[in-house]
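Hey, can you fold this?
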Amino acid sequence: MEDILKKAEQARESLIPSKSEAVYQKEYKIYLDWLTRKNVMPKDITETVFLAYFQELSETYSPNSLWTKWSMLKSMVTIHEKRDITKFNKLQAFLKRKSKSYKPKKSAVSSPKDVIRFLNDIHLLHKHLPSSAPGHHFLVPPFSAVFRLQHPLQNPVFQGMGVPL
């Protein structure tokens, strides 16, 4: 029987991805600290407690982050407290409702003209800096290495830019 318990404990420990274990532990600790501040014992958790916790989180985090935190806590609570929070339907409904109205921010995208202008500016800066200037040799080589890999020399967009490819 002892052998079975050891095997079960090993299996339980492998439920958390090894690369992410520190992140999961940190998230679980944040949750436990919140419980302590609210004078709630981990054994007393209910869906209401989780709703309150996620309501507070929703004031700071995006719905995508809330789902990530829910997933991490789901695993950690299952392992450490042997509770199944996937049955907390109101909590899942809350998270879905938060996600419905969420519109992620779009990142600014540089146009090819912006990239060429930036590289030309770097090249000009590199040309006019004395070779003894700090960091002089760090400016252009990384860019030229990237473009050598991403855009072969025959690419007409990058020919004649004045940047050493």
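Oh, and this one too while you're at it.
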Amino acid sequence: MLIMRYYLLLIVLLLYCIILTLLHSYITKISKRSEYKLDNSPTEKGKHVIKNGETELNIKTRDDIKKRLEQTETDSRIRIKYNEGKILNTKNKQRSNKYDFKINSGSFQNISGVFILSAFYDGRTTPNLVRVITLEEKTENRQLLCWFKKESFLFLSNAERYKMSENHGRTFEGRINSCPVPTWLLVAPKVVFISVGITNFKATSFLKLDLISLAKENKQRNFGICIPPIFGSIPMSKLIQYFELTKILGASHFHLYIQNASSSIHFTLNHYAKLNLVSFTQWELPSTVVGDSIWYHGQLLAIQDCLYRNMAQFKYLVFLDLDEFIIPRKTYNWTDMIVSIKSKTKNADQFIGFSFKSAFFDPWQIPDPSQQLSYFQYLERSKTLSNIRTKVMVEADKVFEMGIHHVSKTISDKSTIIQVNPNIAIIQHYRSCVTEYENTMKCDPKVRDTMILKYRKQLQDYYKHRLKEIFKQFKNY
């Protein structure tokens, strides 16, 4: 009996040794396959290089991550492509575009709960940065990571999160994420791969984004107009008047964000787009972002996107709604107005833009019967000017973040904005007077203001010509 117990104990010990040997062999095999560590070279804050025992500075991409990146580069679900007026949707099925001009997609791409709108290569700072504009729940703080691929090498950069200044405490908020670009990447990257919350360098989902460069174009135009999301009904005649009068003032191009609009509005935009005067982004918020969960249709996100998307092309960007005009009081156009303001301003080079007070021109007033065009019929305004509902004209390449009515943050702390004297120019805002958030604002008394009539003859001629051209195009459509 004792001998039997001895043999049983011996068998158990042998089985235990065999199991330990097999387990050790398996662990050794796995550790060799995933032996990665963080290296501090190059020693730039927020940057890490994955190493697997090789001596090269730039270490090869691990197979599982490489496979994911290769899938990302060819996966049609992550990109929307445009070609000759045809739109390829996120399932790679072609559908026709009724309007034969290029539009940008305002669709947000979701990766692990972070909705990504657009990405830009920013060479204004050292080190250079990739800026990624995102929409996220305010309670979430997911880490966004930028991956830069060069041949078979992969470089990781942690994004620094910045919450936009006017999210107004809503459930969803806009953010600007900034990823340092490795200084040893001698050529500016054209694309970036995005992941969220990756740990231990395990393979995860990647999103490939094309980067829009912020480098100034050789031939910049003077004034670009950014118009936030449009929704509801807009009379075609007013839209034409808006474009033509703003062109007279100095506008070179308009970038609009369209949430929903009638077919006549789309047709009008089509006409101006053929003249290279208009481009627009189809604005579509994620399905989970509804009602009051975001501030005013995501206006702040559209403003940042327009700022970064257009700053390379224009010396100045002007942020206006479709019922607002910056009307100079002592000059005829914006170019002459700026020359006049700068000539009377000390240290004018330190100023990067202009802020204008606004007056309300109530469209419910009795129209002037002697005038034909809408904006010439409303000649009474609030005597008191709004100091809150201001709008700005800025040298866009000197701005980091735009607010709705002001510049929220500049690239340089030394930069500032000129508060334009109302005797020089004001915003003529064609809407009912409001006093919300502004105790000093008074809607009465009213005063008669005929300053806009100096554009009457030119605008009437331009309007008639444009209307004729649009109807000719419509007839042949």
